Amino acid sequence: NLNNSEVIEVSAQYTSQRCPKCGTTKKSNRNHDLHEYHCSNCGYRSNDDRLGAMNIQLLGTQYISGQEQPKLELTTNA
Length: 78
Description:
Elements: E1 30-31, E2 36-38, E3 45-47, H1 48-64
Antiparallel strand pairs: 1-2, 2-3
């Protein structure tokens, strides 16, 4: 705890399927072979591992803000 930091465990479920821009969660938006995420709703594109890290950071931010059990809000758009 040298930098006043702590480690928490969060669920990685859906972190590589959820768009950090519009919140759309759709398994088909992720291309495993190319490691690419492309949101069919808003057009956001990123590396799928980067996307997962961004969503895990969001969960950490929720925890620091006082949410004891952080979770992603999942929306599906047709």
